[in-house]
Every structure is written in C-alpha cells, then in structure tokens.
C-alpha cells in the first residue's frame, strides 16, 4: 500500500509540475520527507514560504506552519496542509481568549501593559495570537532567532510576556543573564496567572505555562548517564527542552542548527540528541559513513505525533485532488487577522 501511495504521489506531482512546491519540516517522516522540494526549521520555512512563486504551497508540517505560509505568500498562492488534524499540542496551550484575559489582568495590576510589556509569541502558535502581537507592539520568534527577538522586545518595553513555550522563553532569558526569580510562570488557568501583584511587578519575563509534549520527555539524568558511558561524547538539544537539559547540553539550537552542527562536526564523533525521533534517525543514517554515531536522548520513542499524521496516503490524496482542479485542505487565515499577524512576522524577519 505504501508503494502504491509513493507512486500516486510521483504521478500527481508530474501532473502538477511547477504549480506545486512541497515544503517539509525536519520532523517529517522519511516516506514523506523524500518528496520535499525544500526543507527547513520554522524560520527557514517561513522565509521560503514568502519567496516561492508556486500556486500551491503544500506544507508537510503542522497547522501553524501552513498558516504562516498563507500569511507570507502572495494572494494568488494557496497554502495546503495534507491532513487538517496535523496540529501542534504546544500551540494549542495558548488561545486568544486566555491571552486577552491575561492582558486584562496585567492591566489591572500594572496599569498600561501596552507601555510596559512586549508580547512575544513563539511561531508555534495560532495566527490570531500572532495578530495579537502585531496589534500590541509585539513580535514573533522562532527557536533560531529568540535571542535577538528578546533583545528587540526589551528595547521596546521593560517586560516581556512570552507564550506559549515556557522553556524556550526561560532558556533564552537565562542566556541573557536574567535571574530565574525574575522569570515567573503565568498559569492561564488561574486568576492573575497564579501570581501575586508583587511577583508580576518584579518580573522581567512572564512565561506562559506551555510546553512541547515531545521535548518534555528529555531529562537531565538521560544526559548524565550517557556521559558516564561516553565521556568524550557531545550533547545537543532543542531549546523546547527543559532548562536542566539545555544547561547540561554542549549545544542548544533549532532543528536546522542541530543538523548543521552534527553534519559539520569532525568524523568519528558521538552525539546525544534531544529532539524529535524522525530527525534523529535520518541524521544518524546520513552521518554514519563518516563514522559519526548519533543517539536519541530519551529511552522511549517520542515522535511528534501530529506531524506524523502527514503520511503518504494523505499526501497522495491531496496532490491528486489539486491536479484534478479540486482545492482541498486549503489553509486560509481571515484577512484582518492575517494583516496583523504579518505585522508581527515582518518585524521578526526584519530583526533576524
Ligand atoms: P524549529 O523551528 O527548530 O524547526 O522547531 C519547530 C518545532 O516545532 C520544534 O518542536
Ligand atoms: Fe509542536 Fe512539539 Fe510537535 Fe514541535 S514537536 S510541532 S512543538 S508538538
């Protein structure tokens, strides 16, 4: 059945020709990734989405990525997500109602959040949250550019509200030397985030209580045990991992960064990698001929289950429909929302 789906993908692509471009995130499964025209991390893919001229941008990634492709592309282009159920559990941990309530409560405590706080949303968020940032003088960041974006945010106002990933926010703040006690967690399910007015007033960064279900599996003790067995080995992690994991890693960065560091490393080196399994398995195979050993950090299998939903069958069905002139799974951000979200995304691209 898989062979049949692969053949259907090839045939539909041949019919579509240059009308379709396939963008693939690095976590995509191998049987889909092999069809990619362009691959990247979230920052690279958002730039590529604004540069391609194809009529259909078929996004093999998750929902927020296809939204970004829609926002950043031209009016004649269409962003397509082969399975509409491919969401991001972290992105779902923040929504507009909760962020607006947070802003109201901050107004009660601080007076004027628009003068005091820069809202920063990780790109792993719905388009309406990017629009919120666009409207309130805020910005989008990715795992690659979070440090420069945080500098930008503090150049505008004295505090930052960072959502939805507390770990990326904490690691980035920590690297900037912000004391841990000035980075407090805002729990959106509690009044005033579960914080006292004094905690809010003293905070430099308010960290939304969100996380990635994949990266939360990695633990500092996985690193410690591995280092005992392989003292010469090197550890590299994605910044969605906890602060303990990041602090104990030799390198921390985006998916693209992880791939580049290991590919450019000396031959015969050994690596422990804290990011999604599809990426790690693919990289391990690619660098094996140079004698490099690449190992996955967690003892359990942890893939991005939503990214995994984009399988060859869904991709074949999508491409066949597009080739037949039927537009399916079109991701369209409402125009007023797209306009404001683009303000925040353009700020990001200008800064990074
Ligand atoms: P990157 O931007 O590093 O590819 O990260 C996206 C993501 O969702 C990681 O979990
Ligand atoms: Fe979202 Fe985590 Fe999947 Fe990345 S790995 S897309 S943050 S659920």
UniProtKB/TrEMBL annotation:
Pfam families: NadA (PF02445). It catalyses: iminosuccinate + dihydroxyacetone phosphate = quinolinate + phosphate + 2 H2O + H(+). Its cofactor is [4Fe-4S] cluster. Gene3D superfamilies: NadA-like (3.40.50.10800). The keyword Cytoplasm applies. It is an enzyme of class 2 (transferase). Belongs to the quinolinate synthase family. Type 3 subfamily. This is Quinolinate synthase.
């Amino acid at each position: 059945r898989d062979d049949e789906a692969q053949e259907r993908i090839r045939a539909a692509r041949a019919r579509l020709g240059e009308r379709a471009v396939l963008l693939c995130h690095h976590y995509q499964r191998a049987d889909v990734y092999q069809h990619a025209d362009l691959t990247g991390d979230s920052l690279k893919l958002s730039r590529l989405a604004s540069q391609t001229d194809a009529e259909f941008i078929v996004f093999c990634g998750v929902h927020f990525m296809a939204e970004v492709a829609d926002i950043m592309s031209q009016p004649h282009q269409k962003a397509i997500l082969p399975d509409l159920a491919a969401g991001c559990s972290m992105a779902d941990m923040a929504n507009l109602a909760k962020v607006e309530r947070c802003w109201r409560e901050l107004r009660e405590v601080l007076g004027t959040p628009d003068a005091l706080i820069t809202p920063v949303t990780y790109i792993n968020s719905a388009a309406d949250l990017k629009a919120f940032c666009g409207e309130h003088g805020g910005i989008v960041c990715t795992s690659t550019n979070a440090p420069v974006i945080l500098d930008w945010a503090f150049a505008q106002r004295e505090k930052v509200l960072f959502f939805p990933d507390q770990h990326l926010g904490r690691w980035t703040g920590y690297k900037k030397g912000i004391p841990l006690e000035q980075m407090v967690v805002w729990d959106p399910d509690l009044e005033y985030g579960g914080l006292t007015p004094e905690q809010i007033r003293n905070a430099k960064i308010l960290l939304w209580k969100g996380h990635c279900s994949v990266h939360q599996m990695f633990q500092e003790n996985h690193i410690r045990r591995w280092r005992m067995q392989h003292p010469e080995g090197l550890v590299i992690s994605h910044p969605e991992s906890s602060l303990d994991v990041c602090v104990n890693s030799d390198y921390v960065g985006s998916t693209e960064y992880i791939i580049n560091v290991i590919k450019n490393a000396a031959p015969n080196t050994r690596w422990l990698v804290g990011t999604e399994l599809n990426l790690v398995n693919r990289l391990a195979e690619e660098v094996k001929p140079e004698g490099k050993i690449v190992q996955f950090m967690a003892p359990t299998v942890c893939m991005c289950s939503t990214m995994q939903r984009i399988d060859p069958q869904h991709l074949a069905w999508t491409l066949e429909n597009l080739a037949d002139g039927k537009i399916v799974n079109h991701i369209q951000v409402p125009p007023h929302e797209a306009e404001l979200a683009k303000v925040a995304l353009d700020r990001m691209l200008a800064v990074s």
